[in-house]
Design goal:
about 300 residues, alpha+beta, Ribosomal Protein L30, Chain: A, Protein Transport Mog1p, Chain A, 2 domains, seven-stranded antiparallel β-sheet, three-stranded antiparallel β-sheet, 7 helices, about 35% helix, about 30% strand, elongated, disordered C terminus
């Protein structure tokens, strides 16, 4: 993956479309058509035609927050509404390259995600959707990937009892990791205190030869469901572990010489130094160079006079 501090890849921006995929159970077609006619300011017959179409796209080119609000309005009208990215080929997205300081991660994300540091935690925030990616790393190889993952999962269980594990730990592999980087992830859902928002929480533990990194993706559950494909694509193809630069190796202290070695060094004659020419010597050198060239000058003058 690219390793520059900032990289923009030409392509599409991240946007979403809202699709009506039928009528909710317990609602009649006539009732939903009437509600949609009021919402869209169209006739009831037009809304019947809309509902008869399979997976009708009613809005597109929306950011995530607007797509979620539009979906909620359709659901209140009795529709089954789903959100999908406009572009399912994420490789065409405009991406920016981010590198966390010290041991941590390098990752390409959509350009709208903003990077910041909070204490020792590297953070990428998507303000439009409320999704947040955080990473913290340490320089250590004392733990295996299984030990590192067990430690982090145990911390989630003890410190976040409001979360319920929805996917047991599983191995994650990234593009270009090979045997250099190992990853284990687990996923949780619950409502974080003080937020009132039912959220999805993905924990990814990474290990390289010199670093241990914990990365989390925290998003409202509805946002995660919409962007799950994007998040897994980012983690699987755009993520790498950055090891901190190795500590400089101190130079060894000079070993004191014995008396015999010191005497030997004193017996070595010093190297001859170049002797600077005096102004008189420099003039002599110029005069010699001039006279060395005089025979050729005389020969040239002689040939010229004959012609």
């Amino acid at each position: 993956m690219p390793n520059t501090s900032e990289l923009r890849l030409r392509g599409a921006t991240l946007s979403y479309r809202v699709i009506i995929d039928g009528v909710q159970e317990g609602h009649t077609l006539e009732h939903v058509a009437a509600r949609l006619a009021e919402l869209f300011r169209r006739t009831v017959d037009q809304m019947h035609t809309l509902l008869a179409a399979p997976r009708a796209i009613v809005k597109k080119q929306l950011d995530c927050s607007h797509a979620l609000r539009f979906q909620a309005a359709l659901e209140r009208a009795g529709c089954v509404a789903v959100i999908e990215p406009d572009h399912t080929d994420f490789s065409t997205l405009v991406l920016c390259h981010h590198v966390s300081p010290g041991p941590g991660i390098a990752i390409n994300t959509p350009e709208a995600w903003h990077a910041s540091m909070d204490d020792n935690t590297f953070q990428l925030l998507d303000e439009a959707s409320g999704a947040c990616l955080r990473a913290v790393g340490v320089t250590s190889a004392a733990l295996s990937i299984r030990e590192w993952a067990d430690q982090r999962m145990r911390w989630v269980a003890e410190d976040m009892p409001y979360l319920r594990q929805v996917r047991a730990p599983y191995r994650m592999e990234g593009a270009g990791w090979d045997d250099r980087v190992q990853g284990v992830a687990a996923e949780y859902r619950g409502t974080f205190p003080g937020t009132g928002v039912y959220s999805h929480y993905l924990v990814l533990c990474l290990r390289s030869a010199r670093s241990l990194v914990c990365l989390t993706v925290h998003a409202p559950a509805a946002v995660f469901d919409v962007n799950e494909g994007l998040y897994r694509w980012l983690l699987g193809t755009q993520l790498d572990v950055c090891d901190a630069a190795p500590e400089p190796v101190p130079l060894p202290l000079p070993v004191p010489l014995s008396q015999e070695q010191a005497d030997e060094q004193q017996d070595v004659p010093p190297l001859p130094q170049p002797v600077a020419l005096s102004p008189h010597d420099e003039a002599l050198q110029r005069w010699l160079r001039y006279n060395e060239a005089r025979p050729s000058r005389r020969l040239l003058q002689h040939k010229t006079s004959k012609q």
